[in-house]
Amino acid sequence: MPLAASTAALFHKRTIRDADVRGKRALVRVDFNVPLENASVADDTRIRAALPTVRALLKGGAAVGLVSHLGRPKGRDPKLSLAPVAKRLAGLIGQPVALLDEYVGPEVERAVRAMNPGDLVMLENVRFHPEEEKNDPAFAKQLAAGFDLYVNDAFGTAHRAHASTEGVARFLPAYAGLLLEKELVALGGILDQPKRPFLAIIGGAKVSTKMDVLRSLVPRVDTLAIGGGMANTFLLAMGREVGRSLAEPDKETEARLVTDEVEGNGKELLLPVDVVAAPSADADGASGAATYDVDEVPSHLAIVDVGPRTIDRYARVIGNAKTIFWNGPLGVFEVPAFANGTRRVAELMASSGATTVVGGGESAQAVEEAGLADKMTHVSTGGGASLELIEGKTLPGVAAIPDR
Ligand code: ADP
Ligand code: MG
C-alpha cells in the first residue's frame, strides 16, 4: 500500500523541488557506499535509489557533481576508488560520468566551473581525506568551491556530521534530495501517524543495539513482535533456558521493563513460542538443527531461527495490521537453513495490504535477496540512519537543511 499523501505534510525541509536549478552547478551528496566484488559493483540498490534526484537535476538544467564515500579508507586507497561506481552509474543513467580524481583545490574548481548544464561528474571517495570525518570547515569550504547549491540525498550517511553531509551546508544553499525526502516521509510517517493497528517486528542479533529502538516504538505500537537473537534475552528474562544461544544476561532487567510496559498498557507482545535450535549458528550446524518449544531447548544447542508456530502467530498479526515496521532478521538468515523465519516474514509483509516499512542494514539485505523489495511500501537504504531516525534522534545531515 502506498504512503498516504498526507504524510508528505510531515516533511518541512527545503527540497530540490523548491530550487531553481537551471544553469546552476549542484554539489550532490549521495550514498554510493556499495559492496564491491572483483572491482565491480555487487549490489547497485543505492545507486539506483539516487537516480530520481540526479535525473531531476539534470533535466532541470543543472550540472551535477556527485560526492560520496566508499568503505573506510585510511588515506588514499585505490581499492576503494569510486571508479567502478562511476562506471555503473554511467550505464544506469545512460550518459558519461567523469570521475575527478582530485577534488579539492584550484584544478577541480576549474573543472567544476567548466561544467555545462546536463553534465555529470563524480568526485573521488571523499573519505580519502581525513578532514571529511572531522567535519573540517576549511575542507567543507573547498568542497563547495565552484558550486552554486548543495543537495543532500545521502540518507544512509545523514546520521553523521561530516564535511560532505553537514559542514558544506554552511557554505552553499542546501536542499534535500528526493531519496532523503522519501526516507524521512516513510520512516517519520510510521512514527507520527501510523494507521492502526501498528505492528513492529524487531529482531536482529543483540538487544543492546536495539534498546533505543524499542523504547521509541513501544509507546507507539499496538503489537510488538520480538524475534531473532535478541528474543533470547527476553526468553531468559522470563526464566527460560536458551542453551548456547546468543544472549545478553546483563540486559535481562531492561528486557523485562520493555515487556512490562507493553503488557501493562494492554498491548500485544509476541515472543517466540517455538524455535529452531542447532549445534552451531553456522552452516555446519544445519544437519543437527530441529524445532523445539521455547521451554524445551536443549542446553547444548543454540537458537538460530523462529519456529513454525511462531511464524503462524506472526502471520495472524501481520494480517491484522495496517502499518508494519520491521527491523532485524528473525534468525541467522545468512545460513539458508536458518533463513525461514526471516523469509516468511518478508513474504507475509509483501502480500499484506498494510503500509510496510523495513529499516536496518541486514533486514534490507534480506528483503532484497528475497526479491521482495518492490513489494514493500518502503525499504530504507540507510541501515544505522534508519534506526537513529526511529529512535527519535535528530540526524545532523537533515538538521543542516533549512525548512521550506
Ligand atoms: P539490522 O542490520 O537489520 O538492524 P542487526 O544488525 O540487528 O539487523 O542483526 C542482524 C544479524 O542478526 C544477522 O547477521 C543475523 O545473523 C543475526 N541474528 C538473527 N537471529 C539470530 C540468532 N538467533 N542468533 C544469532 N544471530 C542472529
Ligand atoms: Mg546490522
Features:
404 residues, alpha/beta, 14 helices, 17 strands, binds adenosine-5'-diphosphate, binds magnesium ion
Overview of this protein structure:
This protein has 404 residues and is an alpha/beta fold. Helix content is 33%, strand content 16%. It contains 14 helices and 17 strands. A six-stranded parallel sheet has the order 5-6-4-1-7-8, sandwiched between helices. Strands 11-10-9-15-16-17 form a six-stranded parallel sheet, with helices on both faces. The chain has a three-stranded antiparallel sheet with strand order 13-12-14. α12 (361-369) links the parallel β16 and β17 (378-379). α1 (45-59) packs across α2 and α8 crosses α9. The longest helix is centred in the first third of the chain and has 15 residues, at 45-59. It binds adenosine-5'-diphosphate and magnesium ion. Residues 360-362, 383 line the site of magnesium ion.
Walk me through the topology.
Blueprint lengths: L24 E5 L6 E2 L2 E2 L3 H15 L3 E5 L15 H11 L4 E3 L5 H8 L6 E4 L7 H4 L2 H8 L4 E4 L21 E3 L1 H15 L5 E5 L8 H7 L5 E4 L3 H8 L14 H13 L3 E3 L3 E5 L11 E4 L8 E5 L1 H13 L2 E5 L12 H11 L4 E5 L1 H9 L8 E2 L3 H8 L5 H4 L5
Parallel strand pairs: 1-4, 1-7, 4-6, 5-6, 7-8, 9-10, 9-15, 10-11, 15-16, 16-17
Antiparallel strand pairs: 2-3, 12-13, 12-14
Helix pairs in contact: 1-2, 8-9, 10-11
The structure holds adenosine-5'-diphosphate and magnesium ion (MG).
